[in-house]
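I am writing to request your help with a piece of structural work I have in hand. I am sending you one protein, given as its amino acid sequence and as whole-number tokens for its backbone shapes. Kindly check, if you would, that the fold set down in the tokens agrees with what the sequence suggests. You will find the record immediately after this paragraph:
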Amino acid sequence: MKYQDLLKAADKFGTPCYVYDASKIKKQYDRLINSFKTVKNLKINYAVKALSNLSILKYINYLGAGIDTVSIQEVLLGIKAGFSPEKIIYTPNGVSIKEIIKVSKMGVNINIDNLNMLEQFGSTHSKIPVCIRINPHVMAGGNNKISVGHIDSKFGISIHQIPLLLRIVKNTNINVNGIHMHTGSDILDIEVFIHAAEILFETASKFENLEFIDFGSGFKVPYSPGDNETNIEELGSKLSKRFNEFCYDYGKELTLTFEPGKFLVSEAGNFLCSVNSIKQTTSTVFAQIDSGFNHFVRPMMYGSNHYIENISNPDDSERFYSIVGYICETDTFATNRRISMISEGDILCFKNAGAYCFSMASNYNSRYKPSEILFYNNEFTEIRKRESFEDLIKNQIEINF
């Protein structure tokens, strides 16, 4: 999308709003498919938690992908969006056995990362196939909050507990049809990913009836012009070769599975805000916008560095600004960032706003959640309305005193 397109969207739907480019999602999906074209059976399960709008899910389904879900609510969203149960995998963490059993009855694929839960489930539902999530104890990811494969992580069954895992599988006679890992997000070093994959292969070799091996995801995307990203083509070449070798030794053609979220939708997203005011202090020029971490928490929570453009005035001389929100708490999106001169009323565009942005939005300070717009076939369509005061109070129950 060009500046002019985004400005039209801001004018038509108002700000703040999220605008997603469907063509970019397709481009990333095709890129991943093509990178692993030498693998006979490849399955892409989009991670719903990244961006769970129903229209986005329907588009992902249209492209041919399945989905990776982490809650019963995401499973229900997937079914609502048209995914058949066999195209859904459920990978929860810390949920009750009641939720796992309830989801299993929906016919979706189950992924368990807890020995206790596996034993409980296997003791009563041994005929239902399950995937097992292991923790390879590989430190990977761009931030400690999104690095989930290290030894102290709450995710996965430790590779050091494999003997106990095998004992539980034998005692319950449960059918293990998949092995899974996810080491973290924003993984740049391919060799780290390959190293973790070798651990996964070693674990997989201990199970006789596998149908797939799930390598998670966590591929890094560029956050600014010239930024580094995972070389998905090189990873595809190296991992495909090793996966095909493993299948030959295993004696069966397995399915190679990934569960990308950020990789598919991050770069497709643009977050548009209006500048409320310019505030000069003794040392800083603040551009104060009509949003805050209630809409866009990643810079505050993860320290993420999103590229910001003044699309109303893109070609003027650059000045240093700190971009801040309207929340009554520190909500700084960028500090001393060089941006084309900003004036009150200008539209700022935050790039890479497709993943873990709207899906983490809240009503903090009693602010409304913004609208979501999809750009598809050169047309803008509103796929989520901006909230109103009625939305804010609709589930509240008033008491008369």
About this structure: Residues 232-250 form the longest helix (19 residues). Confidence is low (pLDDT under 50) at residues 140-150.
